[in-house]
Amino acid sequence: MESTAQVVAVAAAVGAVAMLLLVALVLLVTRRRRSRADLEAMLEAAQREADDLRHRLEKLTGPGRPAPGGPAYLDEHSAEPAVPAQRAPERADFVITHVGEPGDEASEDLTPLAVPDRLVLSATLGEPLVKVAAFSHGVRRALSAESRNRIWFEMRREVRSARRRRLRLRKDLMREYRAQQRAMEDRA
């Protein structure tokens, strides 16, 4: 009997330590803030990347062709692509038969983009970390002294009112029983 109590106590202690470590990790991650210089550098990098992509798109589509989904492909009155009247299909200038092979002009121009570690960590840990932080906040709030006192007070009040209802019901039943007994004695 004592060994199971010890196992439960050890399991509870391990759970508490794990929760404390998790809360510490959440606090560490949320407290870390980016400086203004870091944010400006990230903005400049994003702008350079957008300019590079725009240049590559212009290079691939050619100078006289609009990009697919651009203004030339849209109807005047709506944002939906205009449906052309019955036209014969145009002959394609090129057909894609391979992609990314050595000697390809397009694949030589396109260098793989470096994904920063911070972005990968943010994408993989961001949402679960927010969920854990919200859960730990709720647990902390639920276990606060104010919350426990409020729950204790409500439980005590509910127990008292239930006791009063049972007492009232018992009195009513006893009154009805005595009335039935008197009625039976009167008949007899």
- Tell me the series of helices and strands, N- to C-terminal: HHHHH
Structural class designation = mainly alpha
Looking at the structure, what is the overall shape?
elongated
Quote the distance from N terminus to C terminus.
63 Å
Query: Mean pLDDT across all residues, rounded?
Result: 79
What is Rg? 37 Å
Number of helices: 5
Instruction: Indicate the low-confidence ranges by residue numbers.
Output: none
* Number of DSSP strand runs: 0
Percent helix range: 55-70%
Largest sheet, in brief, is:
none
Q: Indicate the proportion of strand residues.
A: under 5%
Account of the 3D structure:
The protein is mostly helical and 188 residues long. It is 69% helix and 0% strand. It has five helices and no strands. Helix 1 (2-31) crosses helix 4. It starts with a helix and ends with a helix.
Summarize, please.
The chain has 188 residues and is mainly alpha-helical. 69% of the residues lie in helices and 0% in strands. The longest helix is centred in the last third of the chain and has 43 residues, at 145-187.
List the helices and strands and how they pair.
Layout: H1 2-31, H2 36-61, H3 105-109, H4 117-142, H5 145-187
Helix pairs in contact: 1-4
